[in-house]
Structures are given as structure tokens and as C-alpha cells.
Amino acid sequence: IGADELRLLGASGLLLNSARGAVINQDDLVMMLESGDLGAAAIDCFDPEPYDELFRRRLVATGRVLLTPHVAGFSAQGIESLCRRAVDGISMVLGLENNTDNGLVSK
Questions:
Q1: What residues contact residue 45 under an 8 Å CB cut-off, 6+ apart?
Q2: Cut 0.70: pTM above it
Q3: pLDDT in tens, 53-71
Q4: Residue 20 annotated as catalytic
């Protein structure tokens, strides 16, 4: 995703990238934020990972970004959901019924 695609979001647009850092042309992203042609960006993945310090500084200097580490799923709810889905998958393969509703995963 480069300048042409980011321009479509407009000055009030928000880019959210939680997929892969390489999906976004980072130089174009900074340019669009600096010029005001893109409203803001929220990013939790970078290329390379961990992020390049110069890139981070350029982003932060725009005052239009939220940067977080790529760990959004590591919350109590996220871990519980992951465990429940794992049990559901195992239960399905084993032909068990009611999966996480039968107490295999406690709260």
C-alpha cells in the first residue's frame, strides 16, 4: 500500500495496520502523514521488526500515529479465547460434543 492508496483515505482517513509491516510502503506513509494528506495511522507491526528507530522517530514527529508492539492478543481475554478455540478444535477432531461448554476449559 503506497501513496496512491493512502491518498484515497484522505485527510480525515485512518490507516490501521495490524497485519504485516511490509504491506505498507513506510516512506509513503510518513510522507502522507507529514503532508496531512492522511489523517492518522495506528500500527502494531513493522518492517523490519523490531522497527527502525529513524522510521519510528519520523512517525512520532508527525503527531498523527499510535504505535504499539505486535502483542494485541496477549490480554487475559485474548489468551482465554485462544485456549477455547484450541479446545474446540481438538474436541472437533476427537468427535466430542459441547467443546468448551463441558468444562474442559475453566474460567
A1: 17, 18, 19, 20, 21, 70
A2: no
A3: 888 899 999 999 998 876 6
A4: yes
